[in-house]
Amino acid sequence: MFEISDEYTPLFEELRRRNVDQTRYYEVKGDIMYPSVTSVISFISRKKFADWRARVGEVEANRKTKRATTRGTNLHSLFEVFLQNGDFKTTKEYDIPLINLMFNSAKRQLTDRIGTIYQQETTMSSDRLCLAGTVDLICEFDGELSVVDFKTSEKEKPEAWLEDYFVQLSAYWAMFAERTGVVPKKLVVFLVAENGDVQIVERTNIMNYLTILNDYVNQFIRYRDGNPKRNQ
């Protein structure tokens, strides 16, 4: 059984999501909306993604994208029930062979390394960054307060390919610290591959990722505010 604490829960409220010009925003205060950190990072990665689609072809790109999205959503849902001490074996996701394999491969790592859980699937925002998002998990990981993001993949990835995941995590780190005054010690990417391999990578050089994040946000804002089509 996981220990779940509501110590910081009253400090966060559910933020409504809105899609504007194919970008996800969160309503934070009245008419004020902040872009989601995932949308900002997707904007930065748009050329790389377009090049990949051109290389593999539209049909294959659409197939892979749908598979990855479905796989990620299903495993996230199963992890969420499990970490809430729910009856995960009765979920529809548990009956999907691939998801069952991936979940059971990761289960031991989740059980052994996650301690007290403070936030799970929590919407949060930062007035300093002018960003919002939904964090997967803030918990004790190997005894240290950590911001954790769950990822799935066909296979393990070179660590260099994980860098934008840590940029994303640094945003949640800042949002949590800004609201609570409590500073998590590390960022954790918890990636599960289709063959059951579990890849866990940690970073503590958080300020470096925040610097990158600020650059990403500035690029996004310059493009958004300078795009005449958006302002029509």
Tertiary shape: globular
Round the Cα radius of gyration to an integer and report it.
Answer: 18 Å
CATH architecture: Alpha-Beta Complex
Give the helices and strands as they follow along the chain: EEEHHHHEEEHEEH
State the helix count.
6
How does the helix and strand content classify structurally?
alpha+beta
Percentage of residues in strands: 25-35%
Percentage of helical residues? 40-55%
Number of E-type strands: 8
The termini sit apart by 53 Å
The number of domains:
1
What number is the mean pLDDT? 94
Largest sheet: 5 strands, mixed
CATH topology annotation: Lambda Exonuclease, Chain A
- The strand line-up of the biggest sheet is 4-5-6-7-8
Q: In terms of per-residue confidence, which ranges show pLDDT below 50 for 5 or more consecutive residues?
A: none
User: Can you tell me the CATH class?
Assistant: Alpha Beta
Overview of this protein structure:
The protein is an alpha+beta fold and 232 residues long. The protein has one domain (9-226): Alpha-Beta Complex (Lambda Exonuclease, Chain A). Helix content is 44%, strand content 28%. It has helices spanning 37-44, 46-56, 58-83, 97-113, 163-180, 206-226; strands spanning 16-20, 23-29, 32-35, 114-126, 131-141, 144-153, 186-193, 198-203. The strands form 2 sheets. It has a 5-stranded mixed β-sheet with strand order 4-5-6-7-8, sandwiched between helices. α2 (46-56) crosses α3, α3 (58-83) crosses α4 and α5 (163-180) crosses α6. The chain is globular and about 50 Å long. The mean pLDDT is 94.
What is the structure about, briefly put?
This protein is α+β, with helices and mostly antiparallel strands. The chain has helices at 37-44, 46-56, 58-83, 97-113, 163-180, 206-226; strands at residues 16-20, 23-29, 32-35, 114-126, 131-141, 144-153, 186-193, 198-203. The chain is globular.
